[in-house]
Hints:
- This protein has 718 residues and is α+β, with helices and mostly antiparallel strands.
- Among the domains are: 4-56; 76-169, Phosphorylase Kinase, domain 1 (2-Layer Sandwich); 176-369, Transferase(Phosphotransferase), domain 1; 618-718, Serine Threonine Protein Phosphatase 5, Tetratricopeptide repeat (Alpha Horseshoe).
- Helices cover 61% and strands 7% of the residues.
- A six-stranded antiparallel sheet has the order 1-2-3-4-6-5, with helices on one face.
- Helix 7 (188-207) runs antiparallel to helix 10 (275-291) and helix 15 crosses helix 16 (383-403).
- It is globular.
- The chain starts with a helix and ends in an 11-residue tail after the last helix.
- Mean pLDDT is 73; it is low at 1-9, 53-78, 238-256, 368-408, 427-443 and 714-718.
Amino acid sequence: MASDxxxxxxxxxxxxxxxxxxxxxxERFVATLxxxxxxxxxxxASLIAADAMQDSQSGIRGEDALxxxxxxxxxxxxxxxxxxxxxxxxxxxxxIGQGGSGAVYRARQQRPARTVAFKSLRPEIAGPRxxxxxxxxxxxxxxxxxxNIATVIAAGFDEESRVSWMAVEFIEGAKSIVRRSVDEGLSxxxxxxxxxxxxxxxxxxxxxxxxxRDLKPSNLLVGxxxxxxxxxxxxARALATPDGRSVATETGEIVGTLLYMSPExxxxxxxxxxxxxxxxxLGAVLYELLTEKAPRSFxxxxxxxxxxxxxxxxxxxxxxxxxxxxxxxxxxxxxxCARHPLSRYSSVREMSADLERxxxxxxxxxxAPGRLRKFxxxxxxxxxxxxxxxVALVATVSFVVAAGIDASNKRAEAKRxxxxxxxxxxxxxxxxxxxxxxQDAPYIREIxxxxxxxxxxxxxxxxxxxxxxALKNAFDxxxxxxxxxxxxxxxxQIALNSAQLAPGLGPDSKxxxxxxxxxxWAFAKRVAELREPDRALELESRRRHEELLxxxxxxxxxxxxxxxxxxxxxxxxxxxxxPLAADYYRRAVERSTRIKGESDELVVQARSxxxxxxRKQMRWDEALLELDSLLLIQREHxxxxxxxTIRFAMQRGEALLRLNRPREAEQQLVEAEILVRDRIGPxxxxxxxxxxxxxxxxxxxxxxxxxxxxxxxxxxxx
Length: 718
């Protein structure tokens, strides 16, 4: 039986976890806890209510109120009021800087005698919850040891002045990496050496499970000695509100951060942030270092418009602002600052390695930004695929010319044309994507439609190839930032008409049913986007949906039925309707299991989609049950080392962590880490994600010192 001490320790952890959630997920967390520990859930609910009451009080008492009024008035919330005081063994000197999150003083530590930078934080973040978060994060930051990371010496809370504080290594003559480079007129190579040192520091922190989250020139300092020092590691997280937002309230400070922020950081979802978010920021800083211009411009934009701009616009090519920038460096910046995380360097070390190649005059591994340059580099790196595409295009053109000359071999040529049409799509489009061109780019859609037009020319409209290409167009118009539901519906109808009349297909064929799925969902999206609700159209949308589901579920060909149900689930998920998506995925799982059996790999894949949806809804109990079953099936059928199994192992560790079972989570995550290292590769991006979860599990067990180790290799302790 747990002692009172153990209970309160668990309650404290539960409380700290709950207050970091939004209202909906906090209620779900308490409800989940109530199922396993009703007594603790009651205590937790009381604590949350008391905390909310405390937050809702408008009055601030005593010195806290005085500090708050001074700060709000801009006359001294921090502006030098600590000068001359003794705090935590430090004698506070003159104010040397002030920003939205607080002030920085020159201070003198008494033992050992040395000068430090003493940071005091705004009164708003000195409350008990934020103070606890800050102190925990400061502990982790203090464990980072690297010559290019400003060392955190101490941190605490001063009762007299009512401020949280942090003492950091003092950097004599500190200037931002950009300011130092400009003032001293540094060469490109010298600037790259500074950037490489900053990358080395960030990579070291990542190896210990610490993200920066706020990399910008003012956090990459260069002292009089020429040494780069990265400051404020983890401070963005420490100063975040419980829902993950920054406490920064000054527009200038927020915009200053937005200049270097990755698109996923603007979503407000902390789960979307990983090492590649820091990669993006370093790429944005590199742009400014090379051009001496900010990577973005928000002139004339409101703050919401600026945030939208981050998500919708790329960081420019450096050589446009500075023609002396090489194409290799253009490529490095483009890859580091790719809008989609998967298109970036998978780690800061990879980016640093490319910087080393530039310095050494060697070709970089990054993709270059220009279309012709991209294609030229890609042909050099993928000669076989390039040759295949060239052959397909030449053969296609040759056929079109020859078709009007030689009609005697019409049947043979038609068959060949079908193969060519498919090849144009199946090879050229993936090749373009490999060059970093997104699915919704206009020229990708031009390729799609050109491939369809070619098929109609040589095969006719009512042909399986034409129907298949029309269906692909319908899918593509339904996805991406440039989606168009009306275009998707149009192409779905073209695909359906072609499939119904094409020899060998018909109205019950896979293409026909999938076209109906896409068409129904596109119609539903179009109805939902109407400015004024239309009851008749809403009923028609529901009728089409209810008419199709029984047809799909009555079929015995599990691949088709599962694909259709899975597609409906995917569309629901894209619309943010996660409960409906989970229902579709569950239907697909039940059908597949009934026909194929639970061990079939298609069934396992369908269940993985269900797990992902449950995780997104934070339905951790249900997700854990699915993952336990999936891992058992995989191991019983000798698939213990497959990529799916490794993914399930990582997700199971995450689920245990979210269910406040950190000890079990640790064991599962160590196993997952070893699997990723040995079966996928020691540098694979999944390994970093496993390590972040593992670090969280260790911190939850009050083992922050272990969480900070580099973890070159981890062994499972039996």
